[in-house]
Structures are given as structure tokens and as C-alpha cells.
Amino acid sequence: MKKLFSDYAVLFLIAGIVILLDQLTKAVLRQNLMFGEIYHPELWVSQYIRFVHLNNTGATNGMFQNMSGVLKVFPFIVALVILYYFPRIPRCDWLFRLGLGLYLGGALGNLIDRLRQGYVTDFISVGYSPVFNLADACVLLGVVCLFVGLWINEMAKQGSLTSSNETTAPA
Fold first, then answer.
1. 136 an active-site residue?
2. Is 113 labeled as catalytic in the residue annotation?
3. Per annotation, catalytic residue among 7, 22, 113, 122
4. pTM (2 decimals)?
5. Staple partner for 15: which of 25, 40, 58, 105, CB 3.0–4.6 Å?
């Protein structure tokens, strides 16, 4: 029981930090930029990054516009799967655990917007990429962590198979 509590504490800490930062950045943006307004910071990066206040009724990168019903249900399903699966992940798979925490926080951060406003506030524009927010970035980073974690585990398994085959091979 103690292990289960500490496992969920780690998950909720990661997701909670993501949700807090996501909602805080969106609130600051909504308070300081009118809808559609663009802000270019007076830095050398202003040619690469800018902040623009947009509302997104779709998924990441504006896909699936006006499908709010599905986009409200999907994060609940994802959250339930993560809550079920997370305690079963070995503690040494910290990258996999981090990825699930980031994904959960990002999914719930955008869900809060959908439930409260009916759309998600997007504001980060980098280069020519679609406008996104911190929650979107954490979902993407979470997926990257999951894939890298899986890749590392697979490489470790292959390495252990190779080394065990080398040690048991006849001389």
C-alpha cells in the first residue's frame, strides 16, 4: 500500500506541476493579449518565437476541429489507462514514468480548458509550426520520453541477450 501511494504521489506531482504551469501561462496570456493579438519579444529569438492568442476547438495542431465531445472524453480514457498502468511500471523505468506524468498533465491541462471554456487556449508559435501551448508541449515530450524509454529497455534486453549468449557459448 505504501508503494502504491508513493507511486501515485510521483505521478500526481509531475502531472500537477504541468497542469499548474499550463493554466498559469494561459491565464497570463489571456489577461495580457487580446484574441488574435501577437507579441514579439524584444530578443534575438523574436524571429523564431512569438506569442499569439488563439482559441483551438480541435486537437493538437488544430486537427479535428469542432469535435469537442470526443476531445472531452478521450483525456478521461487516457487518464484511467495511465492510473491503472503507472504503478505496474518498475521504479527503475524513470523515463517511462516521467513520460506518463507529462502526458497525463498535458492531457488534463487541455481538458480543463475544454470543460471551462469550450476550447483550448494556444499561444506559442515557433517558426512555421502550428500554434500550441505548454500542455501540448508536455504531451509531445511525454510521448518522446515513452518512446526513448521503450527504446532504452529494448536495447538493454538485446544487450543482455547478447552478453548471456556470449558467456554460455562453447569454447
1. yes
2. no
3. 122
4. 0.83
5. 105
